[in-house]
Design goal:
Length: 329
């Protein structure tokens, strides 16, 4: 269904949506906070008739959700804001959108800080921590452990094809943490030296599956085989109410050009390139989710979703996601 409201979405908001899509803004937590910020900007810049605001802001929400499909923190952020203006219209809805957006960002940053504090206590002197990709939650946690004076080191994967591991290595080095940078395929061979694995999360499903950067599940299996505990550091906004209501997590497929040089590919037309950006780790490989609410075993994920989002939220989110799918066709 073509959407006439699209035309009035401010340039700055469309830029944030594009930055998420092209990964200039990336990492599930940051994506969620940027989406909330985009909703705030959209509300602040709205100049249309008061009675058109609700439809307009929903369109902005759907535009944001459409950017990347996997991290549930993105629809959770949009849903957090939109659910707070349910039944409102006009100026009241506009003001409440701004308030809810700010509140979301605030809660998200507080959660990040709190989980980093809790998780930092898991890191002990002599630990060798392996991490994958770039997760702000993991970096914060490790920085807090370092500030506490814990003596540990980190192995980090380069994370092909986008090399987010380089961001992790730089940020940890800047914080005075010793880092060994490895290729993704070296994970199993270094596992005997590792004492803990800590990765981030894009989505946690109600039955305790972890969706995170592609390669995470192989790391979890290698850790399990070696008897190394595997944790995911995640704010509760990455738990998926839609999965509670039976919604599937969509694994983003990105372009072949991220993996191979287009010129190389041009000469090899029969080569099919597959570039899934995320994968799914089974709960039996996961020691626990380090959240702002404490260390949560995978089997308790559904309780967190019920507690944080309420029973109805999964269905409401699915409705929003279905609307989004309809608009995309
Ligand atoms: C990033 C990734 C991160 C999570 C958590 O993938 O998988 O582990 O998003 O990050 P991408 P954070 O680079 O494709 O966005 O802790 O920063 O929310």
């Amino acid at each position: 269904m073509p959407n006439p409201v699209n035309a009035s979405i401010p340039e700055e908001v469309l830029r944030i949506a594009d930055d998420i899509k092209t990964m200039r803004i990336r990492g599930a937590g940051k994506i969620a906070r940027s989406a909330a910020q985009a909703l705030i900007i959209a509300a602040e810049k709205y100049r249309g008739p008061p009675e058109g605001f609700t439809e307009y802001i929903r369109t902005v929400g759907v535009t944001l959700i459409r950017t990347r499909p996997t991290a549930v923190s993105l629809p959770n952020a949009v849903f957090y804001v939109l659910s707070r203006i349910d039944g409102l219209e006009g100026e009241e809805a506009r003001i409440k959108t701004i308030e809810a957006g700010k509140k979301f960002i605030d809660l998200s940053l507080t959660a990040l800080d709190r989980l980093a504090e809790i998780g930092s206590k898991l890191v002990e002197d002599g630990d060798v921590v392996l991490t994958h990709c770039h997760s702000t939650a993991v970096v914060r946690l490790l920085q807090k452990a370092r500030q506490r004076g814990t003596d540990f080191q980190v192995y980090n994967t380069e994370t092909r094809p986008r090399f987010q591991g380089r961001i992790t290595a730089s940020q940890l080095l800047d914080s005075g943490i010793k880092v060994t940078h490895i290729t993704d395929s070296a994970v199993r061979s270094v596992m005997p030296r590792i004492t803990k694995v800590i990765v981030g999360a894009d989505t946690v499903t109600s039955d305790g599956h972890l969706v995170n950067k592609v390669g995470t599940s192989q790391i979890a299996i290698a850790a399990y085989e070696a008897g190394v505990p595997f944790y995911s550091a995640t704010e509760s906004i990455k738990f998926s109410p839609a999965s509670f209501a039976g919604g599937d997590v969509v694994i983003e497929e990105r372009s072949a050009e991220e993996v191979v040089d287009p010129i190389w590919l041009k000469g090899r037309r029969n080569v099919k390139v597959l570039n899934p950006a995320f994968d799914i780790t089974d709960p039996e490989y996961i020691h626990g989710f380090i959240t702002e609410l404490g260390l949560i075993p995978p089997r308790a994920a559904s309780l967190i979703i019920r507690e944080m989002f309420g029973l109805r939220s999964g269905h409401l989110q699915l409705k929003l996601i279905e609307e989004e799918a309809e608009w995309s066709h």
